[in-house]
Amino acid sequence: AHLAAGVTTVRDLGDRRFVVVNRRDEQHARPLTTARPWTPTILAAGPPLTTPRGHCHYLGGEVSGPVEIEAAVQERIDREVDVVKVMASGGMATTGTDVMMPQFSLAEMRLIVDLAHSAGIAVTAHAHALPAVEIALAAGVDGLEHCSCLTPQGPRVSDELLAVLAERQVPIGAALMAPPPESFEHAPPNIKKVMAQLGMTPETMLESRRSMVGRMHAAGVRFVG
């Protein structure tokens, strides 16, 4: 969120069955009054596009194949979402998904991006896996969430990838805030699974993440809150 001219703007990148989009539309339909001077401007994506049983599938954005992708993107165009969100990799909070593997092929990702762009709508991609980051960039996404660049050997970002991110100024929502290491005892199963795969402790994982983001910042990569 940010403040502009005294008004808060919030970015919602994943609601359930368009509830935040509906809230945004209701808000637009009634005038702002002095009783609600800080009502935020909402930028809403609706349910994120994901694969069957993929990351955040329970939000209602599951798609399989080009026909379903086209229908889902068209629904978001019809509802005039502010941005299309796509889960390019598995996620830490969804058991059964793989954070180190892409969820969509390059052709599928390009289809999502091209359809959204044809309607003047930007696309941002949740991407933990390094291959998912690379696919999202190759497809022409407008933003990246996390951009963790995870591999079985830990986070990895090459100088070449840094150069692409810096040159294109793709905004990254890095989600750098993290709970204290001791709280990982109660972390979701997928987080514990990833830690075991990498042979890392919460402390070493966080330090590795901070180091990588530091390299990205030094290279001129753009971050958003």
Main β sheet profile: 5 strands, mixed
Instruction: Estimate what percentage of residues fall within beta strands.
Output: 15-25%
Q: Average the pLDDT over all residues and give the rounded result.
A: 90
Order of SSEs: EEHEHEHEHEEHEHH
Distance between the termini: 7 Å
Q: Which of globular, elongated, flat, extended, rod-shaped describes the shape?
A: globular
Spans where pLDDT lies below 50 across 5 or more residues: 1-5
The helical percent reads 25-40%
Contiguous helical run count:
7
Classify the secondary structure makeup into a structural class.
Answer: alpha/beta
The rounded Rg comes to 18 Å
Beta-strand segment tally: 8
Report on the structure:
- The protein has 225 residues and is α/β, with parallel strands linked by helices.
- Helix content is 38%, strand content 17%.
- The chain has 7 helices and 8 strands, in the order ββαβαβαβαββαβαα.
- Strands 4, 5, 6, 7 and 8 form a 5-stranded mixed beta sheet that branches. A 3-stranded mixed beta sheet has the order 1-2-3.
- α2 packs parallel to α3 and α3 packs across α4.
- The protein is globular and about 50 Å long.
